[in-house]
Here is the input.
Amino acid sequence: MFVQHHSTPLVAAPIQINHNKDFDLWIDSKSKDSIKGRILFSYLDQSFESSIVITASAIQIQSAYPYAGIQASTPAHSEATLESPYLFNGSLTTSGIQNIIWLILDTIYLYNLVRLKPHSIVSLYREVFNQVKLQDPSLVFGKIQLNTSLAQFAAKFLAQKAKQKYKYDYSNPLDLLVSLQNLISSYPPVVSNPKKGSLTRDIVVSLS
Here is the structure.
């Protein structure tokens, strides 16, 4: 697989409980019900680090670098109905490992869009935002409130448009909305060099 592990973390963590060809998982806190920590991996010689929270029924990651704010999570499940839990008695399961890899792919997907097609993703967000703004003219670009029905509508519309345009199905539509808003907020008015582990060539593009 093209995702490879990054064996030396840039920020030390107390415990490393998983080391395989796809990612390294470093633990900040752990119980039988949850794990909180960081995952490190690399793609095309670029190092990545994301925070991660794992329970039996959910996994969420959020990138720290090279671009901060890219969020991805598994669909919500009830622990009572979940056939293959992600965590069992504090240990990461095979299902958990596989789903972390899917979320890593979500992160890489958005990383590549920001790096290679920044104008395109901002245009995509603007198209969705303009549709949502018809329902609420008070909305501010890049700041759709997430705990609203409009956010749910915007997220589904955004995911559909992204799938049509880029042929990729993001794991959780709301995370795609969150991620684009985080990127627009964190890197105005330009997306410049990503943070630690940046590519050698500069990436400077207008977001306007």
